[in-house]
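Students often ask why inverse folding is considered easier than folding. One informal answer: many sequences map to the same fold, so there is more than one right answer. In these notes we will look at a single instance of the problem. The structure comes first.
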């Protein structure tokens, strides 16, 4: 029995006071729409997902990249019922349709599957996901039939509640499952006789019930799952909830997170068991951290991969980089994109790398810039070394062989190659290739003038 998932993502979200469509705002490291789409992709294949787009349709579509999902255009945004009307042809081959809100990022695949299974077991024409939040104000209330508690008698909007009905705590989440045939047999009965002049999908509950169809409701286990955001304050509340969930998932898998309320961990981050994350760490994007690592406070790691037993000391920034097993990074190192740090290598205090391959056991411990460099194994880069990789027009490579020693305060003017086993004397400016096992010195001969300082002081005293 085939299911399609339709995700509502056409609205503007005017109450956010933002130029961006609501579903493009980020919480927990991804857009609201991406959270919902990723949950849907764990229930049905991407080709069975249909996203209703309207406001800023091109930006919404491009935000999802190449996931293989389908898009349905709602040129005029005339409500949720109107949106499902636009999808009529697209979903005509399915027996059932699951409808999700693109701005409710806390929804879990498990809950979508529970809705599906309940809908089938009840042989319903419409199933409504409900919840009991702490504060139901603003949500439509679900009234169940007294003779059959699984069935819905009505969904009453907040503005239409009687004083007695305001105490009802079960709300309509805006998540539904429909049997396609009765849905589209009656969807044109929707009316727009309301303040917004819109067609509300919520009204299908009353229409189908009047037509003798079975409308049922299932309660979400966690009321947070149905939460959306209409203000920036509410958006940041969603962000906090998502990040707490990410931290809880990692801790359940054996990760130690000191003061998890201070960390920023995105939803797609993975961390191995027995890794320790200290307070005020940020793990962003699709970062992957191995086992037995330690990430010290104030480090920010984005879209990077760390092996096992990696130590990241305080205050490091690591972006789109790969770090091998047992490497030591920082403190205050800056690994820019395409840095590959080998097994057991050291990148230390105030060292910056960009597009670098550093071999096993190599070290650059102090005050160094390494850009567009290929560095072998067991290399020692002294303090203050700089690869001069940019000539004002092009980026040029520096190649350093195995077991090379580069003395402090040397500049390596690219393109240049240092052969394996070679030495560069401290303070040298290297502009030519250095053969294997050679010593390169490129600095002026030291001159000493006895008594010069004494005579200078005497002159200024006069």
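Output (designed amino acids):
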């Amino acid at each position: 029995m085939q299911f399609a998932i339709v995700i509502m993502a056409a609205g503007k979200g005017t109450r956010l006071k933002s130029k961006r469509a609501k579903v493009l705002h980020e919480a927990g490291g991804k857009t609201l729409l991406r959270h919902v789409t990723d949950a849907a992709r764990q229930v049905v294949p991407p080709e069975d997902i249909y996203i209703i787009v309207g406001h800023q349709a091109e930006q919404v579509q491009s935000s999802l990249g190449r996931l293989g999902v389908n898009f349905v255009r709602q040129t005029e945004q005339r409500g949720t019922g109107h949106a499902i009307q636009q999808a009529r042809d697209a979903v005509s081959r399915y027996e059932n349709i699951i409808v999700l809100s693109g701005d409710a990022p806390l929804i879990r695949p498990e809950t979508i599957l529970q809705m599906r299974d309940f809908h089938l077991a009840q042989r319903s024409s419409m199933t409504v996901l409900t919840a009991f939040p702490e504060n139901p104000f603003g949500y439509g209330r679900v009234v169940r039939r007294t003779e059959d508690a699984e069935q819905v008698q009505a969904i009453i909007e907040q503005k239409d509640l009687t004083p007695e009905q305001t105490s009802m705590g079960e709300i309509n989440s805006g998540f539904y499952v429909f049997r396609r045939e009765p849905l589209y047999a009656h969807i044109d009965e929707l009316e727009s006789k309301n303040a917004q002049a819109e067609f509300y999908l919520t009204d299908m509950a009353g229409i189908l019930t009047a037509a003798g169809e079975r409308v049922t409701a299932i309660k979400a286990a966690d009321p947070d799952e149905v939460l959306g955001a209409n203000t920036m304050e509410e958006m940041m509340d969603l962000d906090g909830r998502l990040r707490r969930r990410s931290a809880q998932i990692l801790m359940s898998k054996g990760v130690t997170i000191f003061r998890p309320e201070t960390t920023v961990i995105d939803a797609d981050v993975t961390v191995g068991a027995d890794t320790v994350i200290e307070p005020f760490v940020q793990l962003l994007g699709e970062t992957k951290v191995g086992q037995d690592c330690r990430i010290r406070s104030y480090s920010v790691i984005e879209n990077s991969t760390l092996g096992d037993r990696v130590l990241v000391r305080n205050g490091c920034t690591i972006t789109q980089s790969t770090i091998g097993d047992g490497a030591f990074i920082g403190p205050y190192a800056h690994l820019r994109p395409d840095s590959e740090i080998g097994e057991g290598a050291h990148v230390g205090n105030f060292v910056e790398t960009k597009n670098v391959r550093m071999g096993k056991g190599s070290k650059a411990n102090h005050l160094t810039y390494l850009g567009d460099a290929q560095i072998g194994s067991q290399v020692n880069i002294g303090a203050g070394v700089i690869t001069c990789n940019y000539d004002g027009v092009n980026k040029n490579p520096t190649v350093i062989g195995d077991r090379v020693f580069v003395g402090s305060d040397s500049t390596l003017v690219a393109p240049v190659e240092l052969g394996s086993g070679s030495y560069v004397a401290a303070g040298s400016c290297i502009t030519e290739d250095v053969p294997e096992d050679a010593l390169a010195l490129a600095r002026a001969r030291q001159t000493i003038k006895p008594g010069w300082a004494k005579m200078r002081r005497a002159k200024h005293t006069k």
